[in-house]
Amino acid sequence: MCEPDTAHHNAPDPYVYDPLTLTTAQREGNACAVCHAQWPRPRRILGVLPDGGSVHGCSECAGLIGPAPHTSVERHLAAAH
Fold first, then answer.
1. 43, 76 in Cβ contact below 8 A?
2. Do 24 and 32 form a contact (C-beta atoms < 8 A)?
3. Confidence band, pLDDT 50/70/90 cuts, at residue 77
4. Residue 62 in contact with residue 52, Cβ under 8 Å?
């Protein structure tokens, strides 16, 4: 009998950002949610918006915040880079 996959139950909940505290570029993923850098386009997922959209950050700011989340979206972005 196969064991159930419980790995996702141990993953921390993503941080939910208040969209009113972000600029339009940050909400759209075109600027880092921490330092506002727009180039290179931020690729690290820092959290989510209440509507389910992803909030991105540059590598430097994401490294300060904590370990990189391992989501399918982030793996796809890394593969595309």
1. no
2. no
3. very low
4. no
Quick check: helix, strand or coil at residue 16? strand
pTM greater than the 0.85 cutoff: no
What is each CA distance from 21 to 5, 15, 27, 38, in whole angstroms? 36, 14, 9, 17
Tens of pLDDT, residue by residue over 28-63, are 999 999 999 999 999 999 999 999 999 999 999 998
The two structure tokens encoding residue 46: 């820092």
H helix and E strand count, the chain? 3, 2
How far apart are the C-alpha atoms of 38 and 40, rounded to whole Å? 6
